[in-house]
Design goal:
alpha+beta, two-stranded antiparallel ribbon
């Protein structure tokens, strides 16, 4: 899927064409009213996670959690979400050889805005 996305983005470089593609995708993503659905999925994750179905109740409200000494808001069903997305043992670190960075991000500083 990643290779396919890169190829398509390489072919369709025009802003107008990309906007038309996005509008089509947005129409597909919103064609079912949320009130009529029992489950939702996410489209901004890898192919394996994109196939997951999450009970929409997991996202109905928020709660605060502490992560590495900082407080963050998250959806009320975050534990169930993590178990569905990454398995029931999501708190168990993978073996050292599987602990590799899978993102392009090299550094992030939450105390500064992106404009600084």
């Amino acid at each position: 899927m990643a290779i396919g996305s890169k190829i398509l983005l390489g072919i369709f470089r025009s802003y107008k064409i990309r906007k038309k593609i996005w509008k089509f995708a947005e129409k597909q993503m919103t064609k079912y009213p949320l009130e009529e659905c029992d489950y939702i999925c996410e489209l901004c994750a890898g192919p394996r996670i994109m196939r997951n179905e999450y009970p929409k109740e997991l996202f109905k409200s928020t709660t605060e959690v502490t992560f590495e000494g900082e407080r963050f808001k998250t959806m009320v069903g975050y534990k169930k979400y993590l178990a569905i997305a990454f398995g029931e043992d999501y708190m168990t670190p993978p073996p050292k050889e599987e602990q590799v960075i899978a993102h392009d991000l090299a550094y992030i500083d939450f105390s500064k805005s992106a404009k600084e």
